[in-house]
Design goal:
Length: about 140
Amino acid sequence: MSSFLPPHYSLRWRRVILAAVLLYLAWLGWNRFSLALADRDLLTELGVSPGSTYLMLYGALWFLAGVTGAVLCFVRPRAAFVAVCLLALTGWADFLIFTRPAELMGGWPFMLIYTVLGLLYSAWACAWLVRKEVLADGRTE
């Protein structure tokens, strides 16, 4: 069935799925930002580490990177991969720097597998791993 589809059709659906995932991550970042802002006094009173300022900045970064990556999926697909790499890098930095109890560090193999699979999928969807196709009108996709 896929042989009847234009060559760029499957790339478009891969990008739609990637954009949906990036918008979900942006929504998570927005929630982290807004909840840290709303509960700033409580977090300060409880002495939560990292503090509310870090949580707000981190949430805002994830929101901006997710929305930017989702838009770039359709405007400049190869540049969207940079946003995905930024999200992966900041996710790992947050995990390694602020995960204190040894019990929580046991989940790193699963996080590593999901990160590698996510990076591979996003590279595939953004045409980093796909040979360029020449369309009928001479454009490359």
